[in-house]
Write a structure and sequence with these properties.
The protein has three domains: 1-104 and 222-242, D-Maltodextrin-Binding Protein, domain 2; 109-208, Periplasmic binding protein-like II (D-Maltodextrin-Binding Protein, domain 2, 3-Layer(aba) Sandwich), CATH 3.40.190.10; 243-316, Porphobilinogen deaminase, C-terminal domain (Double Stranded RNA Binding Domain), CATH 3.30.160.40. Helix content is 31%, strand content 24%. It has nine helices and 15 strands. The strands form four sheets. A five-stranded mixed sheet has the order 2-1-3-12-4, with helices on both faces. Strands 7-6-8-5-11 form a five-stranded mixed sheet, with helices on both faces. The longest helix has 17 residues, at 14-30.
């Protein structure tokens, strides 16, 4: 009698499925004798977005895109849950753990816009007073820090929906999306700045934003694999799926976010980079409407201590 397949739980969005398939393919390649199966689970966040129940100006609560996947793990209906790590709260439910982190993609944000304004200074692609649509407090704060003249507008929906809204809304000059998501959905930026991919409206342009201007959110670009803490067999599988440098970097970032007392919607950004035997962490905070920057280096083997130290500096 064949063994029961190992169930990989995921959300059903195009990006979530693309990420789950990356993990599925890695599992099949690494463990050719084992059977794996992807199981799609609809989360509360998906339901609220699709039903347009989110009020303008309100961020989705922590765990809205992960709770149902975690319930499936706890009830034994799934063995691994694949998340965009930036959606995974820093405090996990009892009995669950972060089993592995996949190799991190490009951490940068990308400005998607319609026309080149050729203005002076930061973000020359945007004209004076241009309206940029993003529901991320972190992105809004950093855009306004670079260009106080810009106007911010809320936007929801998946990637194609946001591109359509940008193309169809005359007053909207641009929006900001994660480079990792664009890359994993096979979008690309041409040498002359055009955005190419499935169903991209005409005239849509794109530019990757340097992290000096826009620090990413904690865990951006990384795939997290959540498992039951007492499942030794799956934990052994995760050891082979884990990318050490990526896991170390996001561990520092998540410890920083935990120390700041925030979730994925907090107006803070951070990026940790492995540098030899050192780990360097840069962070920015816009809590209490004041801009604060911090940068520290620490031992590669103690990422959580580095994250906590940077949080303490910004909270001090």
């Amino acid at each position: 009698m064949p063994e029961e397949p190992i169930i990989i739980a995921t959300r059903g969005s195009a990006l979530a499925l693309a990420q789950a398939r990356l993990i599925f393919d890695q599992c099949r390649l690494t463990f050719p004798r084992l059977a794996f199966e992807i199981k799609i689970i609809k989360t509360t966040g998906d339901k609220k977005q699709s039903a347009s129940l989110v009020q303008a100006g309100k961020s989705l609560p922590k765990g809205m895109f992960t709770k149902e996947l975690e319930v499936a793990l706890v009830k034994g209906k799934a063995d691994l849950a694949v998340h965009s790590l930036k959606d995974l709260p820093t405090e996990l439910p009892s009995g669950l753990m972060l089993g592995a982190v996949g190799k991190r993609e490009d951490v940068r944000d990308v400005l998607i816009y319609k026309t080149d304004a050729d203005s002076d200074g930061a973000l020359p692609q945007l004209a004076e007073g241009a309206m940029v649509a993003t529901s991320s407090p972190r992105r809004q704060a950093q855009l306004l820090a670079a260009r106080p003249d810009l106007q911010m507008q809320e936007i929801r929906g998946n990637l194609p929906t946001r591109l359509e809204k940008l193309a169809d809304t005359e007053a909207m000059a641009g929006t900001v999306l994660a480079a990792a998501g664009l890359n994993r959905l096979d979008f690309s930026i041409t040498s002359d700045g055009a955005l190419e991919g499935d169903a991209v409206p005409d005239g849509i342009r794109a530019v990757a934003l340097d992290t000096e201007l826009m620090l990413p959110c904690v865990g951006q670009g990384a795939i997290g694999i959540e498992i039951r803490a007492d499942d030794g067999r799956i934990e052994k599988i995760c050891e082979r799926l884990n990318h050490f440098n990526s896991h170390t970097s996001v561990s520092a970032e998540r410890a920083f976010l935990r120390g700041m007392g925030g979730g994925c919607s907090s107006p803070v950004g951070a990026e940790a980079i492995v540098d030899g035997t050192q780990l360097r962490l840069r962070a920015v905070s816009f809590l209490n409407d004041t801009v604060q920057h911090a940068e520290q280096a620490g031992d590669l083997r103690e990422p959580e201590a580095l994250g906590a130290a940077v949080a303490a500096e910004l909270c001090g």
